């Protein structure tokens, strides 16, 4: 049932109560046609009490004055009057509702005092009921406001949770994209280079075929495929929260760490690029996030050396500072060959930023290309 219909029915019920009360207790003067008309006019505005509370109060008081002045049964309009005062207090804000309620009480007091010539006990009783109606209306309004605030907070909290969930999903998608790019791009690049070497050897005449180089190239391809498959399965296992029970004896590589950089340098050396791995400072275990970021940056930098640099030598330097790790990868290839616009470079920058670090890339001072990342370790500060 709608509020409008409820108010209409309430107005009809209040009218019936007022008229019935006046008929059953016709003191000091029984109702006549004018009395019934005034009683109905005093109750009818209750049909719009929630939409126009002040108007309803003004109309009710304006009609009540002649009603009481003509000495029709005074108590008959008590119930409609209490409903009007309650509505004003429950709908309007506190200062306004208290002001209007006080005004209504004063008007009733004046009317009854003028009518009776003095303030009687039943007049004070009526005033007490009106004050109670104001109090109940104020309590109802306060509770409605409290519940509305709770609902609003809950809705805002829900929106915040949804926004946070969306942010986490976006970050996770970026992380997955970086991981898949890093582990696949490196292996696929090595496979591409070695497959090219094998194809070149096969294209030569049989008497000039270098079987040793052919075998080494194919072994490198095989190792790169196995490594890519193992890392891909490990990444998918994390995404699927799987225990990998289908193949319990399969190689499950640990989280990438700097202690395993030889896994990156060996395949690059196999394709003809000599890699020098240098460490300076106090070598020590670092936070896992920093280790992973540094490992992936080196991986992508070496991948770019193989793909773009046309280099014969690369240098990977890890400088352990008291509160940071500086990773530098340089090569002796073409200085402008390192792409700074692809997904690989963006991924390196994002990985450095993920641990609060920075990354720069560009032509090296002595030729070639250089990638340098400074990654805070958070151990001092």
Automatic annotation (TrEMBL):
Gene3D superfamilies: 1.20.5.1930, Histidine kinase-like ATPase, C-terminal domain
Protein EC: 2.7.13.3
InterPro entries in UniProt: DUF7134, HATPase_C_sf, HATPase_dom, Sensor_HK_TwoCompSys, Sig_transdc_His_kin_sub3_dim/P
GO molecular function ontology, one term from the record: kinase activity
SUPFAM superfamilies: ATPase domain of HSP90 chaperone/DNA topoisomerase II/histidine kinase
Transmembrane segments: 30-47, 97-114
Keywords, alphabetical: ATP-binding, Kinase, Membrane, Nucleotide-binding, Phosphoprotein, Transferase, Transmembrane, Transmembrane helix, Two-component regulatory system
Top-level EC class: transferase
The UniProt record lists the keyword Kinase: yes
Highest taxon, organism lineage: Bacteria
Catalytic activity: ATP + protein L-histidine = ADP + protein N-phospho-L-histidine
PANTHER family with a match to the protein in the record: NITRATE/NITRITE SENSOR PROTEIN NARX-RELATED, NITRATE_NITRITE SENSOR PROTEIN NARQ
Descriptive protein name: histidine kinase
Organism: Kibdelosporangium persicum
């Amino acid at each position: 049932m709608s509020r409008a219909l409820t108010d209409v029915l309430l107005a009809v019920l209040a009218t019936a109560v007022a008229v019935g009360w006046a008929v059953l207790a016709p003191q000091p003067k029984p109702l006549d046609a004018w009395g019934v008309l005034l009683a109905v006019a005093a109750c009818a505005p209750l049909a719009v009490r929630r939409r126009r509370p002040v108007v309803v109060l003004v109309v009710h008081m304006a009609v009540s004055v002649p009603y009481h002045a003509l000495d029709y049964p005074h108590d008959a309009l008590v119930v409609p009057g209490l409903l009007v005062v309650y509505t004003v207090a429950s709908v309007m804000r506190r200062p306004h509702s208290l002001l209007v309620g006080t005004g209504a009480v004063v008007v009733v007091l004046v009317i009854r005092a003028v009518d009776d010539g003095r303030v009687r006990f039943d007049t004070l009783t009526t005033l007490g009921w009106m004050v109670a109606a104001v109090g109940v209306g104020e309590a109802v309004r306060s509770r409605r406001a409290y519940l509305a605030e709770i609902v609003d907070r809950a809705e805002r909290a829900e929106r915040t949770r949804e926004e946070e969930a969306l942010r986490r999903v976006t970050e996770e998608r970026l992380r997955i994209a970086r991981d898949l790019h890093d582990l696949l791009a490196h292996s696929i690049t090595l496979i591409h280079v070695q497959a090219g070497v094998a194809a070149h050897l096969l294209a030569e005449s049989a008497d000039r075929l270098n079987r040793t180089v052919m075998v080494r190239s194919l072994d490198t391809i095989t190792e790169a495929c196995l490594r890519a498959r193992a890392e891909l399965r490990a990444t998918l296992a994390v995404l699927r929260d799987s225990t990998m029970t289908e193949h319990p004896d399969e190689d499950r590589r640990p989280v990438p760490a700097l202690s395993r950089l030889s896994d990156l340098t060996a395949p690059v050396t196999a394709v003809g690029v000599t890699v020098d791995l240098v460490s300076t400072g106090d070598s020590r275990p670092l936070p896992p996030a920093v280790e992973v970021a540094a490992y992936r940056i080196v991986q992508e930098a070496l991948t770019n050396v193989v793909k773009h640099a046309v280099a014969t030598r690369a240098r990977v330097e890890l400088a352990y500072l008291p509160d940071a790790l500086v990773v530098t990868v340089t090569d002796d290839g073409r200085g402008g060959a390192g792409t700074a616009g692809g997904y690989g470079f963006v991924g390196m920058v994002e990985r450095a930023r993920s641990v609060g670090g920075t990354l720069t890339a560009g032509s090296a001072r002595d030729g070639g290309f250089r990638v340098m990342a400074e990654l805070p370790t958070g151990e001092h500060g």
